[in-house]
What does this fold into?
Amino acid sequence: MSFLGYIRPDGSVGTRNHVLVIPQGLISKSISDFVVGTKTIQTVDHGSGRTADDRERVARVLIGLGLNPNVDSVVVHAASPGAGYPELAAERLADEIAASGKRVEVVDPVKEGGIYRAIAKGCQLARMMVYEASKLRREEVGDEHLCVGVKCGYSDTTSGIAGNPAVGYLFDKIVNAGGTTFFGETTEIIGAEQAMAKRAVNPEVATALLDAVAHREYLAKSTGLDIRTINPIPANIKAGLSSLEEKSLGAVYKAGTTPLQGVLQYAERPKGKGLYFVDNWMGAYSIFVGYAAAGANLVMFQLGGGGMAGRDLLEGTPSVVTPFMWCTANPQTYEMTGDNIDFYSGTVIEGKEDPEQAGERLYQTVIDIASGTLSRNETMAYNEPIDLYLEGPRF
Amino acid sequence: MNHDAIVIKESDNVATALHDLPYRQQASVGIGDETITVMLVEDIELGHKLAIRKISRGQNIIKYGEIIGRATGHIVKSTHTHVQNIESLRGRGDMS
It folds into this structure.
C-alpha cells in the first residue's frame, strides 16, 4: 500500500517532478520549448473580457497547477492579457503558490526590457530550477498521498458493466487507504443523482449535489431540445447506450461505494480526503486540467470506444502536470488501439476476471505509474490545447 | 460472465450483449446465478440491449435496477431495445 513519490515542502507528494511555466502565451511556450523538464499550459482562455467569477476560475487553475504536488518550482510571467486584472496579476499567482514553500520566480517584460529579454531571463531561471529539481529523489510513501481524478468517455455499455466498476474498486481502495478521488460531469449523473445523494456525508453535501444536477438539467431543458441530441453523444448511442439515464447509471460505478465528502467547483481544492464530486462538464480538454489544479497527482480516462472507428492513435488529453492513463473494457477498442491503453478490463466481459480482480490489477498499474513508470500518453509529445471550463458571458 | 448477455439486477427487463449476437441463434443470458436462454429474432451487437420479457408501450425500461427510459412502442421479447423503441425521461427540453 505504498508508492515512490517526491515529497514537497507542504507535505504533499508528487508522482512527477516538473518545473511549471505559467500563464499561457509566447513567453511560457518559448521557455518551455527551450528548457527540458518544464511544462506549460496552452489555452486561449486568459481571462481578459471575462466576469470576475470566471477570472477567479482561471486564477484557480493557474495557482492550482503551481500547488500541484507534481510541480517542484514555478516561473510566472507578467505578460498575459489577463494580468491587468487583480485576480490574475503575476504577483498574486506567485504569492499564493509560494505560500506552499515552493520556489516561484516572476518574469516581467517591463522590468526586463521587453519580451525577448523576459524569455531569456525565464530560460535562465527555469534551467536552474530543473537542475535543482533533479536532485530530489523518490521516497516510499503511503497511498493516502494518492489523489486520482477520472473521466469516462466515448462510453458504451462495457463502461457500465466492467470499466467503471474496475475504477470504482480502485477508488474505494484509495479512499480506504486515506487518499482522495475525484469524479464529475454533472450532466452525466442526471438519472443517478438520488442514489449518489444518499451517499453524502451530510445533508448539505446531498443538497449541493442535487442543486448542481437540477441547475444542469434546467440549462438542458432551456435549450428546447431533447438532451439526447447532445448527450449521449452519437458514439455512445452507436455503441448501445439508449438514454442519458442509462449512461449516468453506468457512469457512477466509477465513484465506487465510499461516502461522498463534498461537491467541488471546477479547479477547487478539497478541504479533506476521500471521494469528491466535481461540478464540471464532459469536455476532456477541460476536465483533467481541473482535476490537476485541484491537486490530482494522476488522472485517467475510462474509455468505452465502441462507437469510434479508425482511432488507432489516441491524441493526448491535457492535464499539464499529471500522468494521464487510458483504460478500456471494450475488447474491440483494445484490439483497435491497444498500444495506447494502460489498463484493459475487457477480461470481465470475456468472463476471465470479475470486476474486483480487474480493479486490483488497475491498482497495481496506478502504483507503477505513480512511482515513475510512464503512461502510454506520456510517451507522446502532442497534447490538445486546453479549454478552461468558464461559465459566464464574454464581454 | 461466461454468457452471451447479462442482466445486471434481477428487476431489469433488458439484458446487455457481451459480444456480437447473430439472428436466429440461441443466447444464454446470465441473471445473478441463473441462466435463461432466448432465441434471437434479430442481430444484437456487443453492448446493445435486448428485452428479456415483453414490454408494453409506456412501460419503464429497467437496467441497473433503475429506470433508464420508457418504451415508445410494444417491445417483443428478445428484440433489440434501443433508441428506436426507448425514450429518455430526463433533460427533455422538447417536452417542457
Summary: The mean pLDDT of chain A is 95. Chain A touches chain B through 41 residues (CB under 8 Å). The first helix of chain A runs from residue 26 to 34.
